[in-house]
Specification:
single chain, mainly alpha, 4 helices, 58% helix, globular
């Protein structure tokens, strides 16, 4: 199982929730809060559902509440993937 990358997250955000006009996801957004990027909790929920389904993982809901930037979110997904690999 490969690592989840920032580019993976950007692609899924665009696919699941679109891209806010005036926001350049290809810029330096790694530490910009999702709210400033135009993504509300519903957009993150849709993206999370897609990731959980595609990667066959479950993301901790409390940790999701704290993962409010792309960097924190990618780290959360990669921790979940590492736990699945360790359990296999």
């Amino acid at each position: 199982m490969r690592q989840f990358e920032l580019d993976d997250l950007k692609a899924l955000l665009r696919e699941c929730a679109g891209e806010e006009e005036g926001v350049d996801l290809d810029g330096d957004v790694v530490d910009v809060p999702f709210a400033e990027l135009g993504y509300d909790s519903l957009a993150i929920l849709q993206t999370t559902g897609r990731i959980e389904r595609d990667f066959d993982i479950a993301l901790d809901e409390e940790a999701l509440d704290e993962a409010d930037t792309p960097r924190a979110y990618v780290d959360l997904v990669n921790r979940a993937l590492a736990a699945v690999r360790a359990a296999a």
